[in-house]
Amino acid sequence: MSARRLAVLLGPRRSGVPAYTWLADSIRQLVADGRLLHGTRLPSERELLGQLQLSRTTVTRAYGVLRDRGYARAVRGSGTVVQVPGGPVAGGGEPLELASLQPVGADVVDLTCAAPAAPPGLNRAYAWAVERMPSFIAAAGYFPLGVPELREAIAQRYADRGVPTDPDQIIVTTGALAGLAAVYRALLSRAEPAVVESPSYPNSVRALAHSGARVVPAPLVSDDLEGLSGVIRRSSARMMLAMPDFHNPTGHVWSDDERARVAAMWRAGGVTGVVDETMIDTWLDEPIEARPMAAYAPGCVTVGSAAKTFWAGLRIGWVRAPHALVGAIARARLTMDLGAPVLEQLAVARLMDTQGGLSEESRQRLRASRRVLLELADRCPGWQAETPTGGLSLWWHLPSERSSALVAAAERRGVLLAPGSLFAVDGRGLERWIRTPYALDEVSLQRAVGGIADAWADVTAPSHFAVKN
Ligand SMILES: Cc1ncc(COP(=O)(O)O)c(C=O)c1O
Question: How confident is the model at residue 34 (pLDDT cuts 50, 70, 90)?
């Protein structure tokens, strides 16, 4: 990281404490916030003192404090490198979905899962699909690339968004995650570096790691484009997983300018962008204006899903790839399964035809639920979240590093949460962050707000500090 960029992240100097304390504390906070990632090289002492107008003793002392506390280490030939105390966990974060593999008791509010309720009209779409089945039953039933009418409907959606698409470029999969896994399997060789913004959706990152790739965390595009560019360059990665539309968990949307700049980085580095658009239809205030990444980076591969737009139980997703990559991805997919169920594909084709995207009813429900969860800002002193214009979660910045403690305390009060660290690409840190999905109904969320506020009071009570420290 350049001295100039670090100076921007540090902000103005805090008065009332020695300069070295301010510098060491501020860098520590940036590590805890996930803005300075494990492994980032800090600027040399000379560069930083020039940028911040501090004395050499101050910078040397601050770096010394960081090393003593486990937030940095000296690496021969690389200077001082940031580290998360304890280092990254091998194998990445915990599987988010495992929490919901167990049945959850009726008195527990499960906020580990961010999927909206099924829309009205779902049963009618299934009934329509059943009516349509005889034409398909007449054939053998294998459609490894997808049934033609769904491939056409998906291609048409891209064309409507300004990216002309041939149905031959579409491969229907059993959900976006299966689509991502097929893309990784087709395009990556073992130990090849692949860049991912941190935080990110943990299951996609785990799938990447399991494909044998070396997962390289990068800063969020909306936080530090320059930092991302450096990571791509240094890692020599040939793939980047991106979530430009309501990033999970932060809810960020890349602007036109950010899309163009990331596309330029991909072009310059020979990087294939893998764009996860699972959340794209979950806009609550207004649709995303920016064009799809494929308009900026024609060589990218896009993955989509019916799970957040219609219903997760449909288990239908898709891959949109440049013609040249379709064959390799289709072959990789055939090592996993031989196609998605025909009935579900027909139901999704029908929903795309009749509803287009998320229903207005679902949107209203989600807006109301978002309002309820935003009350956490009043109930929990110091909690801050941007109000996302879409997606399904609030990403809270906590005033202290207590995300995991909060998760444990909330569970005792009947609310299941996923800690910030689960979304960290290397599985550690982000103790100042917590994700709270607003996909559940208002009543459940009101209970959740009460439970979370009480749990936060538990973990920040002076007696808790006494026990912990
Ligand atoms: C960003 C993101 N990508 C992919 C998935 C997985 O999608 P699917 O259920 O279609 O496999 C999810 C599910 O939550 C997600 O949030």
Answer: low
Residue list, ligand 1 pocket, CB within 6 Å: 114, 175-177, 201, 204, 243, 248, 276, 278-279, 305, 307, 312, 317
Cα(345)–Cα(340) distance, integer angstroms:
7
Which CATH architecture group holds 109-116+359-468?
A: Alpha-Beta Complex (3.90)
Task: Kindly report the pTM of this predicted structure.
Answer: 0.82
Which residues are within 8 A (CB) of 262 and not within 5 positions of it... i.e. 6 or more apart? Answer: 221, 225, 228, 242, 244, 254, 273, 293, 296, 297
CATH architecture of structural domain 3-82: Orthogonal Bundle (1.10)
Query: Which atom, in ligand 1's list, is nearest to the CA of 243?
Result: 1
Amino acid identity of residue 272, one-letter, is T
Cα–ligand 1 centroid distance for 338 (angstroms): 20
Per-domain residue ranges of the chain: 3-82, 109-116+359-468, 123-354
Per CATH, the number for 123-354 is 3.40.640.10
- Digit-coded pLDDT (tens) for 307-316: 999 998 899 9
Q: How far apart are CA 168 and CA 326, in angstroms?
A: 8
On whether the CB atoms of residues 27 and 71 are closer than 8 A, the answer is yes
